[in-house]
Amino acid sequence: MLRPRIIPCLLVHQGGLVKTQGFKDPKYVGDPINAVRIFNEKESDELMVLDIDATVNKVEPDFALIAKLAAECRMPLCYGGGVTTAAQAARIIDMGVEKVAVSAAAIANPALLTEMAAAVGRQSVVAVVDVRKRTGLFAKGYEVCTHNGKVSHKLDPIALAKQLQDAGAGEIVVNSVDRDGQMQGYDLELAAQFKQALKVPVTFLGGAGSLDHLGELVSKLGVVGAAAGSLFVFKGKYRAVLINYPTPEQKKLLCHEALKR
Fold first, then answer.
1. Is 228 helix (H, G, I), strand (E, B) or coil?
2. Do the beta carbons of residue 165 and residue 125 sit within 8 Å?
3. Residue 93 — φ and ψ, nearest 5°?
4. 51-91 pLDDT per residue, tens
5. Active-site option among 45, 51, 53, 130
6. Which of 6, 54, 133, 252 has fewest C-beta within 10 Å?
């Protein structure tokens, strides 16, 4: 039976694990490998690791780090950062990673997703769409951005997601820039638009600060991926660093909410 997936999202910056707010001000929160070990113990559904330096610095994926992550991880692992070719994706999958995520490279060349799907299987291809509200006196709606929010694209996020789906993405991750690190809840209206428009599995990231926020998402949208960063690395209003994850009982309650729909 399909059920919601609860997914910690870890950001790697300069070799360390960090957490951002609005894609800015990365705060060091620990060692990536140590975090993976803790999530192993807590039996996380999946794990997403995004290298936020690679694309900005125009370097290829950190294959040495990926090998360490894959060797340690005991759950499905999604890796993103610096992937620009199907050959790189295949190399990552061969290391034992289940999914490869791409963003800027796929937006620049959607055919990359077609090539990746042919090389590793559509189920292993994830397209990440970073979305934020348009700014300006008469601005309405949302826009797409890449390169850690530094580059804006005049693209409709929903139309882009459908294009990436049709090109070969087996999953779409929707990342809210405005809500990143805010811990005030998901943008449920935006999430509903993506869920209704897409046929492939969708994962939402940005804004979760409590288990109630995860519950709100799955209660409204059903079987989706509920991803979070701050929720799983911070504790309390002072954001003390503490790797955490829902207990099996808490996960059952969340799944029950989704399956009632």
1. strand
2. no
3. -65, -40
4. 999 999 999 999 999 999 999 999 999 999 999 999 999 99
5. 130
6. 252
